[in-house]
Amino acid sequence: KNNQDATLKASLYKQAELVFDEQIANHPYHARIWMMKGYYHLQVQEWDSVIRCQKKAIELGAGGLVNLIEYDAADMMNSALVQKVNKLNMDTTAIFSLLDSCEVSTFDNFKLHWLRGAIYNQVGDFDHGLEYLQRAYNLNTRDFEILYQYSFALSRNNRISEAKKHLTSALEIQPENAAAKNLLQQLNSIQS
User: Fold this and answer.
1) In contact, 54 and 35? CB cutoff 8 Å
2) How far, in Å, CA of 117 to CA of 128, rounded?
3) Among candidates 71, 21, 64, 68, which has minimal Cα distance to 41?
4) 127-170 confidence digits (pLDDT tens)
5) Please, what is the Cα angle at 136 between 43 and 113, to 5 degrees?
6) Residue 67 phi, psi (nearest 5)
7) Residue 107 DSSP SS3
8) Cα dist. 166→18, 29, 146, 151, 184 in Å?
9) Single pTM value for the model
10) Which residues of the chain have pLDDT under 70?
11) Cβ(142)–Cβ(173) under 8 Å?
12) CA 66, CA 26: separation in Å to the nearest integer?
């Protein structure tokens, strides 16, 4: 039974891919079709294809009035990016090349800035981390991951009072986050 289910599922996915390919051939400038094809690739965990399709959807949809499609496409692309980055094992050259390839001039994706800033933080380059996390924060002031990484970079740049302020905001979003609580406790023990 399980083998039959898997075979049927694989067959249905293949049929769906053919339908999307046909639709794209007939409507190459339709952002929603590119986004849906990217969603298909997300379901089968084909990360490179998700990124490619969602980037195309963003390029076609950015600034348009079709349900602001670029935001949905960016969410899917960002999910695939996190999967890809995790598999690159901190190869920063490959990671930054991947992130560069996802930039769309007509759409400022705050998660790309966040991801780049978080990577810089992880390798100890807090000046560059702060630069990109500031960009992410300017685009989205209510995202926990941005607030946490931004606070971390601020603290490593000796901007303790600012770090505390943004970390407090992060904890309003996720009050039980152990890492954020620990960082705030560390910062509170520092004279600012």
Assistant:
1) yes
2) 7
3) 21
4) 999 999 999 999 999 999 999 999 999 999 999 999 999 999 99
5) 60
6) 55, 30
7) strand
8) 47, 41, 9, 6, 10
9) 0.83
10) 62-67, 191-192
11) yes
12) 19
